[in-house]
Specification:
By secondary structure, the chain is of the alpha/beta class. It has one domain: 3-Layer(aba) Sandwich (Rossmann fold). It contains six helices and seven strands, in the order ααβαβαββαβαββ. The chain has a seven-stranded mixed β-sheet with strand order 3-2-1-4-5-7-6. β1, α3 and β2 form a beta-alpha-beta unit. The longest helix is centred in the N-terminal third of the chain and has 17 residues. It is globular. The termini are far apart. It binds S-adenosylmethionine. The site of S-adenosylmethionine has 21 residues, from α1, α2 and α3. The site of S-adenosylmethionine (SAM) has 21 residues, from α1, α2 and α3.
């Protein structure tokens, strides 16, 4: 099983029906707000934003937020929320950094939630984040801790979560410093082997 952009397209209209996704985004947004200083002046990119659950939770706290994703349908749902709420400091952007070079844009903070494990080349995406960040910009990566593959089940071709020490080393090799990684949430999920709990970490690091 892979998750192609069209899989996410087909899931976009029902994505927000799962209230645990709202809770996950709220918890991660709260953790980012508690750890990243001076958010109110920052231009934020949420990469792999989906329907914008994390970015729109941060939106009232930041200068502006760009919700980027490779799925047109996810972005359509996000754009409808922006319009329905009359939000003026948020926009959507179709972007796949795994497919092309980083655009000539700069952000002060890049955040991403449950997206990195879908992208095969972790070092490549960390390098792209580094290029998109302004001087001393901050990257905030929330994703699954290393798991046994039961989260997605057989045939998933992405990462089975991340080993935190390995991710720290990759961040440092990609030009980030002051790396901090904590568990901030748990996803509860029914699997073939019964109910399971999957820790979600938040890694925060500064562009050096
Ligand atoms: C598991 S969903 C998470 C969505 C959202 N962050 C959330 O927590 O509700 C992963 C998202 O990453 C997007 N995605 C996957 N690969 C991507 C890529 N290479 N570039 C940009 N977005 C990607 C998908 O379209 C999808 O919206």
């Amino acid at each position: 099983m892979t998750h192609s952009p069209s899989d996410f397209d087909s899931r976009a209209r029902t994505w927000d029906e799962d209230t645990s996704k709202w809770e996950r985004a709220r918890r991660v947004a709260q953790s980012i707000a508690g750890r990243v200083p001076s958010l109110s002046g920052r231009r934020v990119l949420e990469y792999g934003a989906g329907t914008g659950l994390l970015g729109l939770a941060l939106q009232p706290l930041v200068a502006e937020v760009t919700l980027a994703d490779s799925s047109r349908e996810m972005l359509a749902v996000a754009q409808e929320k922006i319009a329905a709420r009359g939000i003026r400091n948020a926009r959507t952007l179709r972007l796949d950094l795994a497919e092309g070079s980083a655009p000539e844009l700069r952000f002060d903070v890049i955040c991403t939630l449950m997206t990195l494990h879908h992208i095969p080349d972790t070092d490549g995406i960390l390098g792209a984040f580094h290029r998109l960040l302004s001087k001393a910009g901050i990257v905030c990566i929330a994703d699954l801790d290393r798991e046994d593959g039961s989260f997605h089940g057989p045939g998933f071709s992405g990462h089975n979560g991340f080993d935190r020490a390995d991710l720290r080393a990759r961040l440092e090799r990609s030009g980030f410093r002051n790396v901090n990684i904590d568990i901030v949430h748990e996803v509860k999920k029914e699997t073939a082997a019964g109910p399971r709990v999957y820790p979600v970490f938040l890694a925060i690091a500064e562009k050096s």
